[in-house]
């Protein structure tokens, strides 16, 4: 078994995340006053890509639990038939791990530190790690695809290979 690759999360920004999808946040978004001026609509923060092979857009809530520290990354997943958006329902920071590689390994991973007021939409076919939260339990609103076809691919790293997230500066440990 090889030594793990250490990955340090970088701040989640539009520019850094653009190759993988869209950052969902109100900062810089088109703000439209509605409901007689009592509500602000932050318009079109992301556009779902779900129509492939007769798919349809759905909303779900995922309840994530924290993983033991140090956080070891051993697999990645992607959705070839549609995009997938994650928006935290409580303002706790969380982690996003993606890869630009066609078949990712530990050295190909890119990690982001998302604030509790930021969500992401993974573009179709983008390799990403399942939810990674920094608190014991955190709920997310998920917008993704339902419908026919196989919309989940996973790749597990070979022979015990893995990456470890260096989150000490994020958690103070």
UniProtKB/TrEMBL annotation:
It catalyses: (S)-ureidoglycolate = urea + glyoxylate. It holds the Pfam family Ureidogly_lyase. One of its GO terms (biological process) is purine nucleobase metabolic process. Its EC number is 4.3.2.3. InterPro entries: RmlC_Cupin_sf, UAH_cupin, Ureidogly_lyase, Ureidoglycolate_lyase_dom_sf. One of its GO terms (molecular function) is ureidoglycolate lyase activity. It is an enzyme of class 4 (lyase). Keywords: Lyase, Purine metabolism. Homodimer. This is Ureidoglycolate lyase. It comes from Oceanibacterium hippocampi.
